Amino acid sequence: MSLPKFIITKDGYFRLGMVNQHKDLLKPGDQCIGGGYYHFDFVSNRIVLDRSSYDFGRPNWFLLEVLKVPSVYKGLRIVYLYDDRYHDDFDVSEELTIEYYD
Fold it and tell me: Whose CA is closest to 43, among 77, 67, 70?
């Protein structure tokens, strides 16, 4: 069953899509540093990320300074919502430099 999932790679690539498993978003040579699920919030113009990948765990945002995002998502704010009492939500667009690619 395909679900809306995302991953981030050690090289800083943000990939998302409707896939069965998070590993389906990997390309040869990629090392995944976390992932989860996403949905689009068109009212607030955001990509909302949450939860974690069963195989790769929560995204390790602290390992990145730059996030490389497909240019089709330019103009959308990216935010990761922690579902616990220990972390504040992470405003990816504010905390990391975003580079867009085609």
Answer: 77
Q: Which amino acid does the sequence have at 41?
A: D
**Identity of residue 67:** L
15: left (phi over 0), alpha (psi -120 to 50) or beta: beta
With contact defined as beta carbons under 8 Å apart, do 6 and 68 qualify? no
pTM of the model: 0.95
- Indicate the burial class of 80 (C-beta count within 10 angstroms; 0-12, 13-18, 19 or more): buried
Residue type, 87: H
The model's pLDDT over 42-81, given as tens digits with 9 standing for 90+, comes to: 999 999 999 999 999 999 999 999 999 999 999 999 999 9
Q: How many CB atoms lie within 10 A of CB 3?
A: 12
* β-pair type (46-50, 77-81): parallel
